[in-house]
## 1
Amino acid sequence: MVSVCMATYNGGKYILDQIESILPQLGERDELIISDDGSTDSTMEIIRAIQDSRIKLFENSGRHGVAGNFENAIRHAAGEIIFLSDQDDVWLPGKIDGMVSFLKENDYDIVTCSCSLTDENLNVTVPDYYAERSPLDKSAFGNFIKDLWLGCCIAFNRRILTELLPFPPKVAAHDLWIVIYGQLRFRCGYYPKVLQLYRRHDNTVSFAGTKSGNSLGYKLSYRAYLATHLIKRLLKFSHHK
């Protein structure tokens, strides 16, 4: 069983494109978990109007923000394999089947595919985001300093959730927490295929390949915070392996 976990917030402009690209790839037992973080636009109405029993919509009553919203979606997932989904991308046909097969055949815990970067109208600007370097070309420490992973491109086994959850309280980027911890503790693999369109527009939460606007002081303090919690979590579970 596959669970696709999507976090939404005022995504009405693009969300139908994304949902319609995911649903044809799901089996009858699979599910699309959507956690909404208090949208004030048409997002909820669009989701409810689709009327597909595989869509399970939850309002996020926990910690708000991107990381908290994704955590809420993941907590409601029942699948053996979990995908993360942004609200404004488009998945290409075969993404789910290809990544599930790759994960299972190689006994990986976390896998990522590549994507094409596009403008808001889905015109491709970068055909293959990982063409020159994939996240797994860098060590966990290298990605910790300058992260290459895109959370919207990953899938992982449910069995690792015991260690990943809960996210530390001040974690702002759910994907950074998942993949850095994953590189340190689990088997990660790169599936070298472009399997989605990563839409970039004025309201995109994080732009792939662009320079961060955060101050150096914030970057240092945040990584110190993240490192502290990574060490605590690793020490907690290290005796299990």
## 2
Amino acid sequence: MSTKILYYGIAITVLSCIVSCTSRGGSRRDNKAEYAPEINQVEVVALEKTDFSRQLVSNGKLSAAGRASLYFTTSGVIAKIAVENGARVQKGALLGKIEDREVVLNLESATLSLKKAELELFDFLAKLGYKAGDTLSMEKSVLDMAKMRSGYSETKNSYERARIALDGASVVAPFAGKIADLKAKRFDKTNSDAFCTIIDDSSFDVDFTVMESEYSFLAKGLTVKVLPFADLTRTIEGKITSINPSVDSKGQIMVRARIPNDGTLIDGMNVKVMVERTIPGQLVVPKSAVVVRDYMDVLFTYTDDGKAHWIYVNILNSNSTSHAVAANETRGAVLNEGDRVIVSGNLNLADGSSVVLK
């Protein structure tokens, strides 16, 4: 029994020596974590007051500035169709015509009746002592009475109706443009539907809506930029022509602008609309300069000792690339012209972080 105890004591002593030697060896360096502070590379810009281009963005739809639905005002059978959909026509061009022999005859009869009524009018005036054809020297009341007694007024009325009926037997272009919505065919009978539509696509109106809170931002004559959704790389500039002074049930206001056609726009096209207005004397920074900390907007400035200084800011206005900012004075923040604002490498910064300039 005593021999076993002796062996156990010797083994424990040897094991203790091994552990002691190992702890005094090179393993101490491996067990100690070495700390290397993180250095962030950043880019900065000098803060200065400049003009800020405030933007308002909305969606709209194009409609031709000139558009008219054209009708036959005289009933009949269509005898001629002189155009097709998509055709470009000049003002006064004949577009369609009905069979008009009857209305032509009616006008000829009305013309003969009118000439006969004129002779009867002159005879009646001669009986009153006036020279034939001299209607300028007599009183208007006398002339009106003579026209009625001779039947001239009624005949002249019939002649005008016959002339209007002949005019209504044809459809002509009221202005230059493109033909659309032509569905009628030759030998069809006219009805209440429009014969066709003519579109003046030399310019377009774009209708879009803005929120009630943005009403003061708008003004007639303000420049707009229109980008067709079919190709957002193209921009066409125009001017606001009208602002509806009424708010709809959705809290929106209708605005209309006029833009020229660059040759690629068509009626009904959907577009993106941007309205820009310059606000002078603003502290402007790239959008990348502003980050969120503690659920608030902040930016970082670079100090001479290589530190990032955290500043709370208020965003006054924004556009597609920049913010107009001001110091959040309720948080004790101060922002001055000339401050070097960090615009990149700021996503992981904290107040007092060490930084180096790229």
